[in-house]
Write a structure and sequence with these properties.
45% helix, 6 helices, two-stranded antiparallel ribbon, single chain, alpha+beta, three-stranded antiparallel beta sheet, 18% strand, 5 strands, 166 residues, elongated
């Protein structure tokens, strides 16, 4: 009886939970520097039915996932360029007198030779604030999404109450 009566509520909660899970899977590796595939691979959700409640739970199979943080403000901003890329950057520097956009130089010698050319991460990447990734992508996003969809859940609860009272 519970499974047939609360099907609208279950559908609304499961939709919300699956959307949070998809958001986490889509944005997990956009927020971290090292992309090993270990922490973001085991994220999933399940529905838990108790005697008085129905909950959608997003979880991870790997315990380390809960402790991953975004890059901090002083973390590595770029990666060293390859030899071919270095020669292209330096030939443009010699021609124009400027380093091309998207690159930076670690230091210059007295003779104005570049030492350590880095390709800067794209500016549209995730913020560098060292926040806990699980809290940002699951908890905070889930709360915001629940506030936006409270109307859907309310409609489902009203439909159930109308059916029970009839």
């Amino acid at each position: 009886m519970i499974s047939t009566t609360y099907v609208e509520i279950k559908r609304a909660v499961e939709s919300l939970t699956s959307d949070v899970t998809e958001n986490v899977k889509d944005n997990w590796y956009k927020n971290v520097i090292e992309r090993t595939g270990k922490t973001g691979g085991g994220i999933d959700y399940e529905m838990r039915l108790g005697p008085n409640n129905l909950r959608g739970v997003v979880f991870s199979h790997d315990k380390a996932t809960y402790y991953v943080r975004r890059a901090g403000p002083f973390s590595r901003l770029g990666q060293r360029v390859t030899n071919d890329e270095f020669s292209n950057v330096m030939s443009e520097y010699r021609a124009t007198g400027k380093i091309p956009p998207g690159y930076t130089v670690q230091r210059w010698t007295r003779t104005r030779r570049a030492v350590g050319v880095f390709k800067i991460d794209p500016p549209g990447s995730a913020p560098r604030d060292a926040k806990n990734l699980w809290k940002v992508l699951v908890s905070d996003y889930g709360k915001r999404l629940a506030k936006e969809r409270v109307g859907e859940i309310d409609k489902a609860m009203q439909a159930v109450s109308r059916r029970l009272s009839a």
